[in-house]
Amino acid sequence: MAQVKYVRALVLIILALSIVSTLILLLNTAQAQPMPIQSIKVNNGVISYYESLQSMAPGIVIRVYVINGSIIKPVNAFVSIYANLPNGVTPMMHTYGSVITLPFNESAWSFIINEWLGTGVPVNDYNTSLLVFVTYISGNDSWVVPMIIPYNVGWVLAARGVKVAPMNPAVPRYIVVSININVNTIKPFKVIRTKINSTGELDPQVFGSYGGYVLYNCSVSGPQPSIYMPLPYEFIPESTCLGINGTLPLAWITWDKSVRQYDNKLLTYLGVYYSGTVSWDAMATNYGDIGTSYSTGESWTLAISINMSSTQGPGSLYWAYGGTWALVKYDAWYVDVTTGYTWYLGSVTVSEILYVPRQEQLTYGVDYGNGPISTLYYGAIAVSKGLISYPVLNASSVIDYASFTPNPLTGAEQLSMCNGLVYNTTGTLGTIYYITLGGVKYAINTAQLGTGIGSLAAGIVSLAAPSPYSIIAGIVATGLGIASIILPSSSTTVTNTQLELLGIAKGTNLYISVMVASKAFGIPTFGFILNATNYYGNPTSYSCKYGKVIIIS
């Protein structure tokens, strides 16, 4: 009996030791795999930020995966990493593999840091980004996948032993990026044998000042990385960068001649209310939103009004800010250096904001054909028609409708609301109706960018001596589109754009269309198009989620 008790006690001791050993192992495992400070999911993968990781130097790790049905596996691919700068982009690394590392102590960072410190803006006041292109080849198919990796220059400095104050208590020292190539949902390029048709140079004749914009080559000359060459094959990446420096619209109202003719007693207000971190998301051909290219703190609380009776014709009332916008076109080639055979692997174009000063002052104005809205969208319309065979600024871009019209049976004035409420308040001047946009991140699907750098430049250059009325007439006829605000993730940010209307009375005919055109170029803004005869694009039918009609007079 005593022997049985002894055996049971021994078993219990062994079991207890096993449990303790398991707990210690689990604790060690948990310590070896710390939780990230933050993770960001984008269309093509996940970006995670860590304060500490074992067995690696502070920096960036990129892992490339292929998704084929239910199978996810790491794959080798060509990877090009570019750094976004205040005035352009510069290459940092061209390499090949399934796991790519870019330590913060890499010499290429020195040039990047100095370019950003040269702005004189404290590093804690903004986040910039890296622009990554991954080229994967399988048989006769290839995929060129872009991604934006946001980061702070202060993190790089801190990893290099440079004290930057004040910094947040948790400073990310490791950025782990998973880039996923879904071969089932991403249409591949067909690998074709051809001659290299270099696109790395822009025609210098397009550079100059046009309608308040400065066009320039934004490929910044810095330390150039070597091109990966797995003999006997050579991978040749090429990038072309068109920089556009000037006024970027934040919010606007556009009206056509019918509003001025039939609703000339209308008084319109355009208000903007932004406080906190504002983020600008990059857009890419066939991929849509690929991540935040730049973010900084802004505080904009302003309003401006215009009376239709005082306008000179069709035009736009706008709020705008100064910034640097870039279109980056990336091409990939594969060359057999022994035979000279060359294969074209494909391309992708990215539209991104590079730099906006913190607390940038807003400007306002009325654009009758030679201002920032006309210049920008006159070029945009021409490019979209030429490259994707139809204008990206079309009726399908409308996200909401509202109208003030006489009831066809009684003649009473009625307000029709399509996808949301139109509010009103009564003051000394009468009843003010207003539409508020904010607090919602409007979904943006696959981008229709397809932008050829030279074509866009030609479209803007054509405005060197614009005819104000002919340009605005062309834009109103074809339609101005409004890009959507990409709301930042910060919960402290207040984002609000508001249209107010005074002078609505019995007999008013006014159709309001709210549009999104970020899938064309990714310049964030809300806007409104006013017409006295129909909604923008003259739709014969449309669907409404709210669909309420009320009599107002």
Describe the structure.
Helices cover 17% and strands 45% of the residues. It is of the alpha+beta class and 553 residues long. It has a 22-stranded mixed β-sheet that branches. Strands 1, 2, 3, 4, 7 and 10 form a six-stranded mixed β-sheet that branches. Helix 5 packs across helix 6 (453-461) and helix 5 (372-388) crosses helix 7 (468-478). The longest helix has 31 residues, at 2-32. The protein is elongated and about 80 Å long. It starts with a helix and ends with a strand.
List keywords for this structure.
single chain, 553 residues, alpha+beta, 22-stranded mixed beta sheet, 6-stranded mixed beta sheet, 8 helices
Which SSEs are present, and which pair or pack?
Elements: H1 2-32, E1 38-42, E2 45-50, E3 59-68, E4 71-74, E5 77-85, E6 88-97, E7 99-103, H2 108-117, E8 126-138, E9 141-151, H3 153-159, E10 174-182, E11 189-190, E12 192-193, E13 208-210, E14 213-217, E15 233-255, H4 257-262, E16 267-284, E17 288-307, E18 315-336, E19 342-355, E20 363-367, H5 372-388, E21 398-406, E22 413-417, E23 423-427, E24 430-437, H6 453-461, H7 468-478, E25 494-502, E26 510-515, H8 518-521, E27 526-531, E28 548-551
Parallel strand pairs: 3-10, 15-27
Antiparallel strand pairs: 1-2, 2-10, 3-4, 3-7, 5-6, 5-8, 8-9, 8-17, 9-11, 12-19, 13-14, 14-15, 15-18, 16-17, 16-19, 16-25, 18-19, 18-20, 21-22, 21-26, 22-28, 23-24, 24-25, 26-27
